[in-house]
Every structure is written in C-alpha cells, then in structure tokens.
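[Discussion] Sanity-checking designs against the backbone

I'm trying to build intuition for which residues belong where. Below is a structure token string of 510 positions. I'd appreciate it if someone posts a full sequence so I can compare it with mine line by line.
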C-alpha cells in the first residue's frame, strides 16, 4: 500500500505568493502527453474487468473498455504508449470530421454480468450483430457488436455504456471521442518557436472549423467519481456466481444511497494524476492530468463529465473561455463570425456533458517581472501593439522572455515596502522537483546554481533541482469533498498547471 498524504505534509510542500500563485514541488513529473489516444476511423474495443488503484492503496474492482488488438496508431505518440484489454477511462478515440467511424465491441466481461454496449451521444448510429437493448444494440458475453456512424460534429464528445448505465458507467465503462475539424482554420499561427525548434503537440491547428478556435496545445480531462461500496458488491457477486458455476445471472447491486469516496481526473486521483501518462504503476489508468504551458499560449481544455455528479472545477490563474458544449459552437447572437461563449471563473462539469474551452496566461499586469530582469542588465523587452515582446516587435522566436508583458519589465517581485509579494524562506522550499526556490521563469533562476548574486532567492551554492521548474497553479474542484481521497486531504480532483519558461521545451512525447 502507498502511504496516504496528510494535510500537514502538503503544508510543508507549498508556498503561496500573491494569493492564488502556488509554487509547488509535489512530485517528479516526467511525462505530459497531450490528449493521448488512438486514431481511427476503425476501432476494435473490449469490455473487460480488472482493478484500478487509488492513492490510499485501495485496489478497486472495475470494468473498462480496452483494445482487442494493437491499434494502428497513437496520437500524439507517447513513450510507453499502449492499449490493454481494459482501462479507465476507455481509449480516447480520435477521428476527423466527415469520416465513417466503426467501433467493434467484444464483451469480455465476466459472463455472469450479462450484456454490455456503447452509446455515442450526438451521432446517428447503426449497429450490426448483437441483440436489441433499451438504448443500444448490446453484445452478449463473448459476442461482438459493431457500431457505425458519421463523425458529423467536430469537438469533444463522450461515449459510455448504454446497458444498465447506473451500474456499468459507475464501474468504469466510459471514454472520450475527439472529432478533429475537416477544414481547420488557416490563420492559426503558433505563439512562437520554442528553444531548439518547435514541434506541435496539438491534434489540429484549431478546435473547430472557425477562425476563432485556434490553439497551441491541448489537454483532455474526464471527471468522474466512484462509490467503492458498489464496486465491492459487484466483485463479490461475480465471485460468488463464478464459484457456483453460474454462466449467466443478474447482479443485484444496490446503487443508492450513493456516496462517492474517490473523485477522479482521467481515472486517477491526486497525486497519482500528476504521474506520467502510461506510467507502469497504473497499467489500467494510462491517462494523467498534468497541464503545462508557456506564457501566452492558448491551451485548449477538453472536459467531459463522465459520472453522475456535477463537478465545479476551478482553474487558478485565469478564467476559461467556453468555445462549445457537446460539439456545438457557441456563437454570438448578433455576429455569427464571432464566438459568444462565457468566460468562467469555475467551469461546472455536468453528467454526460462535454465542453471545449480556452485557457490563457501571460503574466500581464502582475506588477513584477516574472523573468527577474534587473535594471541595467541589458535585457530587452520592446512591446508590440498589444504590449508583448514578440516577433512583431523584434523578438527572436526563441527569446528567453518571448511574450513577456513589457510594462512589467524590470519591476521587482520584492520591494522595500513589502510588496507586491512576500517571498517564502528559500531554506525551506529550495529543494524540489517542481519548485526550484525561485518564482521566476528566467534563465538566471534555473542554470544549475550558477546564479549571479542578488538575482534570485536561491541560497548561495544551491542547485536548481529541475530545469523545468516554473510557476505552478493549483487546479481543483471547488467542492471540498472532491479534493479528498476517501475523506483524506489532499486528493481527488486536484492537479497542478505549470507555466514553463519559453526556453524550456515541453516535450509531449515523454
């Protein structure tokens, strides 16, 4: 069993500056694959049983979709990418608008659990094989049913079981379908080249066939919850039926009263969700929740509510502009060429609903230089027409402070009158795999200890523990129970968003 993390331990691992700014060094972060999944348009999936893990050491009996055979391709590729016979959430299916999508589902669940199926909300689905069910054509134990539909609507969509959904979705039979636009917007230029050359880790230049939906990188978050009492009942009843030699039965699992103890982002709870995608210690939970970005980048958030509860999620550092819900663009009522979605402080996620939104952070207006430039140090920040240091104002594409808000150039973090922020004691929080002991993004804050005197709060001779260390923001549910794991804080629906220096290459393949 892994040791649970207590509130007192986290207090020793966090330092707050300027209210919502969280400088954190929770765990080693080695991989951040953006929207890992498998490409179509033809898929072969299993429904099978296995166990998923939680940070309190629990092994939770679950059902999930997986791959009947090695998929044709992963997109984007991540080191160690795989697709087993069962995972929670199910494999993310990636297709292109207009394609005919086929999904062949084989029911490899224990035969005593009966039929299963998949529904694809928002699409006109036809099915071959199987037997008629209430919501979809169903696959009997050991049998296969094939679903076919045209991917008519770009955006983020869900798929899940249409058989006993109150039980089977709870057990883990759900996943995501991403439809890429057939004609992405042609005006989507990347924010700027990263040091050493830029590689795109976005699935498409734009989220929709609309000029206002450009983005630079993307992440998928599927929110769900689990009541372990339900999973335990299902496990015990399956074991008893199998021991009695039964080949078919009806599980009599009590669903109500419902009390979730685990709150999941992509099948994991914090801190597990910040470990790499495809980490070997989570063989049936391959997807993480660990967004990274550079200042000025447009980050596309693909979010799905896969459980039965509403989840009020808060992304620190900025609001989220909602682009679409369930693949339906929200356009202005007076000008359909413009988007009309709300700018949300808390992005409520509702059961069965998906949304696409844009998150943006630049450091604008903080009143301190996030790169730790000093007066007279020769650093340059020529503002473009929007006030940022970009190629439009003469910045090289790989400038260490590309997209800096020039009005704050050389403004100190700490001034004689005690503001705008109070630095933490560097002797307490210097060591760590995220937080280096410095709140800055500049090179002088992260060059292996060779720091000019007086430029950072690093103690003399201290070495930066991680060249990636940046400014971290906590993203978490605003429902207090949902940031616990089995009632222990911290846990549940919580993760960290890390703003990296422009010169740090965010390698989404690791």
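Best answer:
Here's mine. Compare freely.
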């Amino acid at each position: 069993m892994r040791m649970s993390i207590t509130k007192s331990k986290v207090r020793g691992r966090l330092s707050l500056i300027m209210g919502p700014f969280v400088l954190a060094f929770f765990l080693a972060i080695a991989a951040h694959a953006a929207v890992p999944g498998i490409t179509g348009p033809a898929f072969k999936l299993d429904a099978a049983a296995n166990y998923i893990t939680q940070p309190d050491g629990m092994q939770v009996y679950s059902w999930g979709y997986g791959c009947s055979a090695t998929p044709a391709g992963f997109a984007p590729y991540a080191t160690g990418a795989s697709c087993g016979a069962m995972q929670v959430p199910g494999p993310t299916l990636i297709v292109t608008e207009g394609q005919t999508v086929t999904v062949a589902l084989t029911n490899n669940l224990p035969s005593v659990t009966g039929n299963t199926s998949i529904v694809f909300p928002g699409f006109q689905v036809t099915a071959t094989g199987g037997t008629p069910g209430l919501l979809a054509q169903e696959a009997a134990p050991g049998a296969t049913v094939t679903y076919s539909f045209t991917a008519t609507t770009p955006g983020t969509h869900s798929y899940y079981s249409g058989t006993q959904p109150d039980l089977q979705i709870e057990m883990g039979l759900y996943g995501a379908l991403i439809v890429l636009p057939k004609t992405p917007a042609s005006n989507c230029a990347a924010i700027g080249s990263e040091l050493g050359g830029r590689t795109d880790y976005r699935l498409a230049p734009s989220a929709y066939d609309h000029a206002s939906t450009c983005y630079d990188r993307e992440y998928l978050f599927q929110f769900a919850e689990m009541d372990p009492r339900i999973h335990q009942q299902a496990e015990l009843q399956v074991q008893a039926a199998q021991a009695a030699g039964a080949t078919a039965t009806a599980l009599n699992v009590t669903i109500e009263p419902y009390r979730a103890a685990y709150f999941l982002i992509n099948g994991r709870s914090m801190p597990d969700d910040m470990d790499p995608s495809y980490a070997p210690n989570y063989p049936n939970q391959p997807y993480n929740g660990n967004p990274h970005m550079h200042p000025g980048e447009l980050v596309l958030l693909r979010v799905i509510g896969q459980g039965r509860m509403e989840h009020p999620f808060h992304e620190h550092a900025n609001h989220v502009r909602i682009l679409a819900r369930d693949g339906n663009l929200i356009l202005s009522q007076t000008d359909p060429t413009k988007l009309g979605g709300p700018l949300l402080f808390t992005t409520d996620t509702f059961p069965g609903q998906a949304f696409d939104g844009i998150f943006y952070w630049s450091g604008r207006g903080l009143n301190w230089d996030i790169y730790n430039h000093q007066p007279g140090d020769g650093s340059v920040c020529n503002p473009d027409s929007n006030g940022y240091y970009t190629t439009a104002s003469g910045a090289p594409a790989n400038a260490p402070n590309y997209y800096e808000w020039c009005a704050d150039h050389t403004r100190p973090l700490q001034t004689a009158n005690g503001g705008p922020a109070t630095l933490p004691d560097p002797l307490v929080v210097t060591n760590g795999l995220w937080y280096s002991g410095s709140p800055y993004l500049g090179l002088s804050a992260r060059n292996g200890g060779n720091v000019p005197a007086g430029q950072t709060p690093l103690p003399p001779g201290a070495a930066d523990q991680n060249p990636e260390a940046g400014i971290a923001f906590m993203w978490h549910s605003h429902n207090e129970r949902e940031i616990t794991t089995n009632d222990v804080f911290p846990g549940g629906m919580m993760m960290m968003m890390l703003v990296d220096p422009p010169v740090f290459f965010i390698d989404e393949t690791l």
